[in-house]
Amino acid sequence: GESVGLHLPTLSVQEGDNSIINCAYSNSASDYFIWYKQESGKGPQFIIDIRSNMDKRQGQRVTVLLNKTVKHLSLQIAATQPGDSAVYFCAENGSSYKLIFGSGTRLLVRP
Amino acid sequence: DTAVSQTPKYLVTQMGNDKSIKCEQNLGHDTMYWYKQDSKKFLKIMFSYNNKELIINETVPNRFSPKSPDKAHLNLHINSLELGDSAVYFCASSQLRQGYTFGSGTRLTVV
């Protein structure tokens, strides 16, 4: 069945270091991918997206990489800050209207 | 102005009761969703409405009945609440599979 998964449930990084959060997806028909950040008590917040015709997209301090060959997605956060501490989700969208979410990775930033 | 707003934020109720959660979006999006987030943070789609019409029903028990009076509103009514219904429910909206935006969630606790 369709599934989106993450390799690491919890990631702890030192403030100022770069963070990499990984995600594997199984539906090769998915053509749109989104990374969300969820802080405690809040809803998922859009970070960055990428379409399947691209393999890299950059935002402010964030980069998403897409490897369609191995169905892998990653989120890189440069110079991680305490405010980056949250749960991060990847989500995929195929031909239907629904977003399918991965299980989430908790990012902890050590001061 | 909040893009996707849902009420109430917290809801504590007894087993067997009937309750409703309301959602409104002011983004002009055509599609609205309800997602359920369990205690392990897993986000799963429940329903999707496009222009007031149901397009996705992910085998949710028929105790859950969504209603969309217009494309800016998608309410969720739950009959005969059970302990297992305790979760955080998120409303979301999108336009043509883009711009997925989530509300801040409703934490439902059934006692």
Number of helices of chain A: 0
Distance between the termini of chain B: 34 Å
Instruction: Tell me the fraction of residues in β-strands of chain B, as a range.
Output: over 45%
Q: What's the oligomerization state? A: heterodimer
Task: Please tell me how large the radius of gyration of chain B is.
Answer: 13 Å
In short:
The complex is a heterodimer of chains A (111) and B (111). Chain A is mostly beta strands.
Description:
The complex is a heterodimer of chains A (111) and B (111). Chain A has 111 residues and is an all-beta fold. Chain A contains no helices and eleven strands. In chain A, the strands form two sheets. In chain A, strands 2, 4, 5, 9, 10 and 11 form a six-stranded mixed sheet that branches. In chain A, strands 1-3-8-7-6 form a five-stranded antiparallel sheet, with no helix packed on it. Chain A starts with a strand and ends with a strand. The mean pLDDT of chain A is 90. By secondary structure, chain B is mainly β. Chain B has no helices and eleven strands. In chain B, strand 5 and strand 6 form a beta hairpin. Chain B is globular, with a radius of gyration of 13 Å. The model of chain B has no long low-confidence stretch (mean pLDDT 93). Classes of the chains: A mainly beta (111), B mainly beta (111). At the A-B interface, strand 4, strand 9 and strand 10 of A face strand 4, strand 5, strand 9 and strand 10 of B.
